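Appendix C reproduces, verbatim, an entry submitted by the partner laboratory led by Prof. M.T., so that reviewers can inspect both the input and the predicted structure.
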Amino acid sequence: MATSARSPAPNAGDSVLDFPDNRLLIDLCGELDRNLVQVEVRLGVAIHRRGNMLTLHGGDAEREQAEQVLRALYARLEQGRPVTPGDIDAAVRMPAGPAPATARVGQLDMFGAEPLEIRTRKKLVEPRTAAQTGYVRSLFRNELVFGLGPAGTGKTYLAVAAAVSMFIEGQVERIILSRPAVEAGERLGFLPGDMKEKVDPYMQPLYDALNDFFPARQVQKMIEERQIEIAPLAFMRGRTLSNAFVVLDEAQNATTMQMKMFLTRLGEGSRMAVTGDTTQIDLPRGVASGLVEAERILKGVEGVGFTRFTAADVVRHSLVARIITAYEAAAKADD
């Protein structure tokens, strides 16, 4: 366990890291060395602190990766950026790369170096896995992007973040967020209220993502001014969506006809992101998922990008990844 009291002297084969700025080292270690403990648990090493030095004990491969992670996190602090549990998780998952330039660059220019960043009003959003990195690149490079995989992999969150970033940069004039109003395996009955009150429960995950990137009052004002629109998939029929970033969430619950209808709404100056999990289809038995059909039909079409996520890309609680893995193993055993 990470400790600074009575740390053992380094042995042959240990790695010793020297960090010159004691103030930054304190931030690197975290309160009660919790950041070091997180690195220890994730990488299977022991870390001891003595003065401005950290000594790493463990296997060669584990020590080498821990050294890369700690140096990358220290570089973040030198740039004035914080180190959070999520940043540590990302550093562990992602291969080491050159530190990003501190100067402000365009969204596409920044993709030449790691880590990638999506700028929003409230925060910087960074991909935490290789699949997320490829997904972010695809969101900015392709006009239509499919993000496929289990819950908790950041498919919708990163798509909404990209939409917000493009809106802030003036690349699109509107953000349109949609999802099918399909109940997840249970009948909820008739909901009270007007149309907005009836559909809002289905749209809440999209509101949650927006509120992570914009102040709540600004989100409400932008909705009132139609700069942001959140609507069920059925409301897209007959429209041409121009100069907008359009996100379709839970797309596995769109029928084949609904999916074709949605994809053909794409207008000039627009981008689309379609996200879903083909293992969580809530359509009636016998009704084909439009997402499954779209993946089969559109693979290889120029301007269309596909990113497939797995349980290894889950960035929620680590137990979520283990739950998904267990369900996948059970499904294979039943086949």
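The longest strand covers residues 174-179. Additional entries are available on request from the coordinating office.
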